[in-house]
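Section 5.1 Outputs to date
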Amino acid sequence: MIFSGDNERFNFEFFQGSKVIRGRMENGLLSAEVKLAKMVQPSVPVMRRLLEMNFALYYSRYALQENELCMRFDTNIETANPSKLYYGLKELAIKSDKQDDLLVQDFSFLERLDQEHIYEIPEAEKQVKHEAMQSWITETLDKIATVDADKFSGGICYLLLALVYRIDFLIAPEGQLLNDLEKISGIYFKKDDRQMVEKNRDMIEEFKKLRDKPKEEVFKNLFRSRYTFSIVTPQPHKTIADAINEANQNMLWYRDNNHEYFANKIIEYGLTYCQYSYSLPKPVSLLVEIYMQVNYPEYFKALGYTQPLYMPVANKFEQDIIAGRVRQIQNQWRQKYPLMNFNTDQISYASLLRFNQSFTNQIELLNLNNE
């Protein structure tokens, strides 16, 4: 956050994805504003959209200033307790970061504003990410086509959701691309009476649309940005452990019936679901990164990583490097998590499946208590 002024009057500025939130406090009033898009000509559909969305806001509101669409939050200091300030600014930041992309996507005549702080990704890196996303979608859909849609409905669902969370974690899309992933995940988790086979069918269709997006459109949603507020909330480690354990238990039938591909992706689902849905402690996220480097060595090689952690053809793991990386993470975070207890001796390197199961078991058993 950028801050200037004193206790009586100050200005502040912070970032949330593609948006800049600017605020000030003077004369007992704290206010903050975000510019969403420029609207050269008045538009009834746009204003109707904003008016309808206002009803879903608790602290902030949409506004029009000259020809700029904005979001605003303000409060008297006398009534501005810490909770109101936190949740008011969080709503302003998170909603504006999402809605600016959707507005520009749905109304092509709107122009983007405040994009100078965004870090552009090199074209070569965008190309690698685009190719990987295309490859993963094709591979997943091809694998699904080889099994019975009814009998394997549960396994198919795991494959599709794991694919959503893999793209989110490794490709890290922004804007409309991120919204597309949220839509696919939402198809499964929507509370309705539809059968899993139907939901799988709809998720598959959405992935086909995602795969068919023009490369230029995908590239526009690949950039780096800074965030002040986490979109998801932290959870006790037991919640994470339970999700990993449940996925690993559901994997057993596929392992025992020689469906190794499904078994590996179900294990991946348990881990990456947590990464997607919760705000994980930093050391856990670093362990997830090691896991993904082992499982997708070609992707990391294409990004420029020179030391693969796993060679699939030879079924060879860089055991010392993997164990060393884990110990480095533990040592780095020992002061904050003194009871962190990842036992590298329990990692199995007999096969990729055995590695995935044993590695995630150790994450499940971590003690992240502070004392």
